[in-house]
C-alpha cells in the first residue's frame, strides 16, 4: 500500500488538530477532506515524540473504523491516555513530533524465518497476553529477528522465548509510516 504526500499530510493534520482541540476541551474538528483513503477501514497507530523521545503511542491493530476516524481517536489516546505517560499539556504540543503508521491486515506465520526485520511488525499472542511492536521499532534499535521476537514477547508480558512455544501465535503486518519531519 502506498500513500500520496497529500494523504500523509492530511492524516498528520487530523492527528494534530484532534490533539489541539482536546487540549482546549473542544470536540475534534470535522474532517475537511474527502480523500477516499480516509473512509477505508484500516488499523493505524499514532506515535508522539518530544525532542526525539517517545511521549505516547496508541493504535488499533485491526481495521475497525475508517482511517480518518482511527487517526483522530488514536492521536487523542496517544496524547492523553497512554498509561506509560502523563497527559500531554497544551504548552507541550508545539514540541511534539507526530508519526502515523497505517497497518496492513495481520497475517499469522508459523516459522520465524518468515519475519523480515524492517518490513514486518510483530503481534504476539498467548492466552490473555499480547504485545505489538511496529516495524520501525526493530530498525530504530538495530535488532535482529530473534531480538525483535524476544522484545515483542517482553511487551506482551511473556517470557523472552515464548515465541518458540507452539501455543504462542505470531502475526506479522506491514505499515506505511511517516512523520511530520518527512512530509512538508
3D structure, described in words:
The chain has four helices and eight strands. The strands form two sheets. It has a four-stranded antiparallel β-sheet, covered by helices on one side. It has a four-stranded antiparallel β-sheet with strand order 4-7-5-6. The chain starts with a helix and ends in a 5-residue tail after the last strand. Helix content is 28%, strand content 26%. Helix 1 crosses helix 2. The chain has two domains: 99 residues, Hypothetical protein ph0010, domain 1 (Glycoprotein, Type 4 Pilin), CATH 3.30.700.20; 67 residues, Dna Ligase, domain 1 (2-Layer Sandwich).
Task: Describe the SSE topology.
Layout: H1 5-23, E1 43-50, E2 53-60, H2 67-80, E3 96-103, E4 107-109, E5 121-126, E6 129-133, H3 135-141, H4 145-155, E7 169-173, E8 175-179
Antiparallel strand pairs: 1-2, 1-3, 3-8, 4-7, 5-6, 5-7
Helix pairs in contact: 1-2
Amino acid at each position: 500500500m502506498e500513500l500520496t504526500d497529500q494523504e500523509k499530510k492530511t492524516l498528520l493534520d487530523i492527528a494534530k488538530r484532534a490533539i489541539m482541540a482536546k487540549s482546549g476541551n473542544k470536540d475534534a474538528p470535522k474532517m475537511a477532506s474527502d480523500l477516499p483513503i480516509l473512509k477505508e477501514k484500516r488499523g493505524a497507530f499514532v506515535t508522539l515524540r518530544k525532542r526525539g523521545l517517545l511521549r505516547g503511542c496508541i493504535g488499533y491493530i485491526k481495521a475497525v473504523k475508517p482511517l480518518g476516524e482511527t487517526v483522530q481517536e488514536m492521536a487523542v489516546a496517544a496524547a492523553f491516555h497512554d498509561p506509560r505517560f502523563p497527559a500531554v499539556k497544551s504548552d507541550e504540543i508545539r514540541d511534539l513530533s507526530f508519526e502515523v503508521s497505517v497497518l496492513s491486515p495481520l497475517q499469522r506465520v508459523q516459522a520465524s524465518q518468515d519475519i523480515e526485520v524492517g518490513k514486518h511488525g510483530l503481534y504476539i499472542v498467548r492466552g490473555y497476553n499480547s504485545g505489538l511492536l511496529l516495524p520501525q521499532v526493530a530498525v530504530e534499535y538495530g535488532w535482529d529477528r530473534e531480538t525483535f521476537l524476544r522484545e515483542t514477547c517482553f511487551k506482551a508480558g511473556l517470557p523472552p522465548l515464548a515465541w518458540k512455544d507452539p501455543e504462542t501465535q505470531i502475526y506479522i503486518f506491514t505499515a506505511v509510516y511517516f512523520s511530520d519531519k518527512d512530509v512538508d
